[in-house]
Amino acid sequence: MSTSTNEKRSRLDPPIPATYFGNCDVKQMVVAFIKEVVGNDGFTCALEGISEALNRVKDEGVLNGAERWVWDMNEFMEGRISILGSPRFEVYSIDFGCGRPKKVDISSIDGEEAFSLNESRDIHGGVEID
Q1: How many independent structural domains does the chain possess?
Q2: Mean pLDDT for the stretch of residues 27-39
Q3: C-alpha Rg value of the chain to the nearest Å
Q4: Cβ count near 101 (within 10 Å)
Q5: Element (H, E) at 119
Q6: Residue 81 CB neighbour total at 10 angstroms
Q7: Which of 16, 37, 60, 84 could form a disulfide with 9 if both were Cys (CB 3.0 to 4.6 A apart)?
Q8: CA distances (Å), origin 40, targets 30, 33, 50, 124
Q9: Same domain, 103 and 128
């Protein structure tokens, strides 16, 4: 049985109005040791971490701890490089009724230690790196 959009929005605290148009995505961090993920039980390890993150959202709410998100992420990412997006998301094929996007940027990239990957808007098989 599918859940209607209004039912999904009312699960947020505070609820999102039915007139809202757009995305409401929240990142969750799953941390695991490389040796666990690439080991024989790697799939199970990854699945357990994802399950724990989903249960946190369900139990504590989508916005719980939001005041610390930037601080926690910056602390965790110290000395690391991030890649956001994927050419597989096909962001240039999305049309909300006003035509294909002319340019897609990932606004959550902050600093010099991150870059984004998207498929090319005009070149089949091409990749945009920002």
Answers
A1: 2
A2: 81
A3: 18
A4: 15
A5: strand 114-119
A6: 9
A7: 16
A8: 19, 13, 18, 37
A9: yes
pLDDT of 5 over the 60 cut:
no
Global pTM value: 0.49
Q: Provide the pLDDT confidence category of residue 33 given band limits of 50, 70 and 90.
A: confident
pLDDT (tens digit, 9 = 90+) per residue, 96-126?
A: 888 888 888 776 666 667 788 888 888 888 8
Residues of the chain by 3-state class (helix, strand, coil), percent to 5: 35, 10, 55
Residue 116 host element (H or E)? strand 114-119
Q: Would the CA dihedral through 74, 48, 25, 15 be positive or negative?
A: negative
Query: 18: domain range?
Result: 1-78
Going 116 to 118 to 123 to 124, the CA torsion angle's sign is: positive
